[in-house]
Amino acid sequence: MSMPLLGVLGLLMLMVLLGLRFPVALSMIFVGLFGTIAATTNKFYLVGMDFDKAFDRGIRTAMSNLSGETFEAASNYNLLVIPMFVLMGNLAGVSGMSSDLFNAAYRWMGHMRGGLASATMRPVPDSPPFRVPRLRLLSRWVALHCRK
Amino acid sequence: MVDDRLPAWLKTLDRVLTGLALFGGGATLVFMVFVSSFNVVVMRKVLNSPVQGVEDLLILSLVILVAFAIPFGGRAGAHIEIEIFESRMSAGFACWSMVVLRLVAGGLMLVMAYQLVLAGQKSTVFGETTQQLLISYEPFYYLLALSAGLYVLVLLSDAFQLLKYGSIQLPGSEETS
Questions:
Q1: Is the CB of residue B69 less than 8 Å from the CB of residue B21?
Q2: Phi, psi at residue B169, to the nearest 5°?
Q3: A28 — phi, psi (to 5°)?
Q4: ipTM, interface predicted TM-score of the complex
Q5: Using one digit for the tens of pLDDT, what is the confidence trace for A120-138?
Q6: What are the phi and psi torsion angles at B166 (to 5°)?
Q7: What Å distances lie between residue B141 and A67, A70, B63, B124, CA to CA?
Q8: B137 vs A72: CA distance, rounded Å
Q9: Of B2, B31, B52, B118, which residue has the fewest beta carbons closer than 10 angstroms?
Q10: What is the DSSP letter of A20?
């Protein structure tokens, strides 16, 4: 089996699993694990190794990657700031800063066409570290506000 | 509030996961914030003498945080699922496919936990340590293995709830999925 075909089959498998509501992380682990087994087996089989030995190599490579990549992902230095961003965003929400910013923006832009959407987006650039979590908090606050 | 219809073992599991995430994860996060702020603001900028090895501590703290977050995130419904085809599925298929996939996922995570334990046992032999303080990765592999093991319990409890009640009751809310 050629590698591009294996890649396409892996992507199709991923789509099927996602469509069946398999959690995204687990779908990727699942496809990655079986894809590694298939690709490694295929590679060693094509260079003349017995199928059993090639399959054994494939399993060992995939199992080694399963633990190694998990630790690698959990200890990624570049992702270190994300928990701190989320904490800051939550502090901004709990302290009422998000609501105050939204209220201010709503008073400036609420009367205009599309004012609610603009007021929701406006406070976000004020404080870049809070962008993602605050946007989530703000959208939740707006939803509550509109329901009232 | 945890639903009254849930069995005692599931309520206990919820309490354990919430406690670990809240106190363990919270303490780790506070440690990360204070250590990184102190090192950068005071030691590096004011005293021009950054503490050696702080990056190692932060990276290992991140591993601890991730380990606490995985099972709690699974139980709290924080793991992302795509539900675009749910409306087109029959109720029976939707329920049974979820049960089967939860069991498959449980098997996958069990294999992962076992492999993490094996990797932990080999890590000292292969000299897997942090770069500056040379802290061994071994206990952190075991912690991740424990986390994967707890996530297996969460997935099995999800399958149990789906079979018994037809839905998954999330902890701390009346919400079901």
A1: yes
A2: -85, 120
A3: -70, -40
A4: 0.83
A5: 776 665 555 545 555 566 6
A6: 85, 0
A7: 8, 9, 9, 11
A8: 11
A9: B52
A10: T
| Rounded Cα–Cα distance for residues A18 and A12 (Å) | 10
Residue linked to tokens 């098997």: B107
A91 vs B: CB within 8 A: no
Q: Which of A31-35, A45-49, B160-164 has the highest mean pLDDT?
A: A31-35
Count of positions (residues) in chain B: 177
Give, as one character, the DSSP assignment of residue B50.
P
Best residue in A34, A36, A65, A70 to probe B by mutation, most B CBs within 10 Å? Answer: A70
| Pair B59, A77: CB distance under 8 Å | yes
Sorted by sequence, the CB contacts under 8 Å of residue B152 that are 6+ apart come out as B106, B109, B110, B113
Query: One-letter amino acid identity for A5?
Result: L
- B71-114 tens-digit pLDDT: 999 988 888 888 877 778 888 888 888 899 999 999 999 999 99
- For residue A92 the two structure tokens come to 């901004």
